[in-house]
Amino acid sequence: MHKFEEITVKSETIFKGKMISLQVDEVQLPNGKYSKREMIKHPGAVAILAITDDKKIVLVEQYRKPANQALIEIPAGKLEPGEKPELTAVRELEEETGYRCEKLEFITSFYTAPGFADEILHIYKATGLKKLEEPKTADEDEFVELMEVTLEKAVQLVTENKICDAKTTFAIQYAQLQEVLNAK
Description:
This protein is α+β, with helices and mostly antiparallel strands. The chain is built from three helices and twelve strands. Strands 4, 5, 6, 7, 9, 10 and 12 form a seven-stranded mixed sheet that branches. It has a three-stranded antiparallel sheet with strand order 1-2-3, with no helix packed on it. A two-stranded antiparallel ribbon has the order 8-11. Strand 2 and strand 3 form a beta hairpin. Helix 2 packs across helix 3 (166-183). The longest helix is centred in the last third of the chain and has 18 residues, at 166-183. The chain is globular and about 60 Å long. The relative contact order is 0.17. InterPro entries: Nudix_hydrolase, NUDIX_hydrolase-like_dom_sf, NUDIX_hydrolase_CS, NUDIX_hydrolase_dom.
């Protein structure tokens, strides 16, 4: 047992939706006292740093209701039950962008908001992109516009706060770092 571990005494699902559920746990703290933890349960997701042969980053713009605005992001989507993250990455890349990749490389995984959610996000780099003649269709409730920008333009969009979500900012900074390291 880790010195900070909290022991779950009781767990109750308050809401179960299509994408998330809300769970409230009663926990015993390391000092023996009790507390409640409200948690959003999420199946996990993937995001793809897709880079074209001419070194452009593939982005999508779509409306995000929780943010009440359209956001510019790297392609992403949630894991389906039992689906491996790399298969989700390939599927989401095809659905959102119409591209298939020759090479898919794992970058990292991280928790998106560990203070209240268990969502883990797996980020991949996709290269060797080829436009599909018959691309998979996006989800019926998903409306996206494709953008392809240079790394410099992507950095500018972050600097101007036109890209403001964590996964995309991380991916662009990762691409910047790779460029610096490859230049040495």
